[in-house]
Structure formats: C-alpha cells, structure tokens
C-alpha cells in the first residue's frame, strides 16, 4: 500500500508558496518493465527552482539543478540504475531488471524534495513506498472438467493460479463471456511460502448446464489470471473444452418445436394407420364368413 509524507521547510512567504502537488510512485512495480518512471509534480508559487532531489530509503539517488553546469547528477547506488535521457526536473526514470545491467533492487521508500532559489529557500518533500511484483511463472491450472456433459448436469471446476505477488485475481469465462461471480466461490490458496510474500489464488465454479451453453455441440471454459495494480499486465489463460453427450447431440442441434404443431403433424399419420388396420380386420372377417 502506498504511503506518502509531506513536510515543508523554510521561511513562510506571502501568497501561495512552493508545494508538491502530486508524487507519482507505482505502489507495485513489475520486474518485466524495462523502465519505471517516478514523477514529482509541484508548484513553485512564482519562485525559481533551485533543485529537485530524489532519494531512496533516505539515500540520495538523483539531483537536478537547473543553474548548474551539469544539471543532472545521478548517484552510484548499488542495485539501482538511472536512465538520464528520461530524467529531469519532473521525473527520474529507473531501469528495470529486464535491461540486464545487473542485479536490480527497486523496492523501497522513494522521496522527492523540491527547493526554491534565494531569498526564500523554501522546500517541500514527499515520499512513497514501492514494492516489486512477483509474476506467476505459469498459466493457471484448470481442474474438474469432464470431456462431455448432459443437458441439466452440474459443471464443477476449480482454477489455481501460479505463485505470485500480489495475489492473482482469477476469472472464469464461459464461451467467451465472463461468468457471473455469484456462481463462483473463493477457495483457500497457498500463501507465504518460506516467509515470502508469494501466494496462490484458487477459485471454484458450480453451475447447471443448459441447452444454450452448447452452441454447435460443445462449450469452452477459460480461467484467466491477472495481477491487480499492475499497469498493462498481460493476463494468463488456460482453456478447456467439453462436448455435449451423444444422447443429447441431436437435441442441441434441432430447433425447439411447439407441442401443438407436433400433435397436428402426427394426427394424419395416426389416422391413416388406424384406418389401414380396420380395413385389414374387416377384410379377414369377410373371408372367414364365406368359408
């Protein structure tokens, strides 16, 4: 969870003074990102900027001083790499582990300090925490589905995500449409293995299958896993298929017929059959009398 602190230092001034309006630090960073930009939005209140200083866990990592011959001043911090081309008076951009420069340690508390020029020398400061996600290493596991079902039978399935941080959010999708959450149930997963934050998420599904679920004689059930709070996260999916039992195949493909129409169509057949039987009986009776 993101936490922010705000403190103002320096002499008070008339009117609106220097103020940091917003500190934009992702509460959870995805290690698959190539870069992570931390942004500091501020209002100088009509004063000139002296410096913007970024720190991590109380240690300076980057300073921007517009009045200096070298405005951008990165610090050599173990486990942290800064993209100078995308760092300035408004943001500092960190390189992610995917860049391959070495071990990267992004988790920590990041602070932004903004200072104005003389004579006011006002300063404002804010900080926020950032943790690092642990993406699942595999697609979710979907269990419990049978190869085929009868109309009216109950489908029961369970989905389990891979180990991750934060815990994955699971969703069932039937024939391309998200299943009503009322038909699902959160199940107990595995959490905090060996003292780590990673855990699994489990979700159960119980629903009665109707004729319309088997369009073309089959259905598809997908379990989708996403990481909450991660921008542009790509869902992981597992899909299973089931067919309509052979005894119901013809029923699923034929359109429903009304009872009145079926009776009307059947009546001439029954009438014809009855008249034929009566005719045969009468013919046999006459032959018997003649003999």
From TrEMBL:
InterPro entries cross-referenced by the UniProt entry: Ig-like_dom (IPR007110)
UniProt superkingdom: Eukaryota
Domain Ig-like: 34-131
Protein name: Ig-like domain-containing protein
Organism the protein comes from: Acromyrmex echinatior
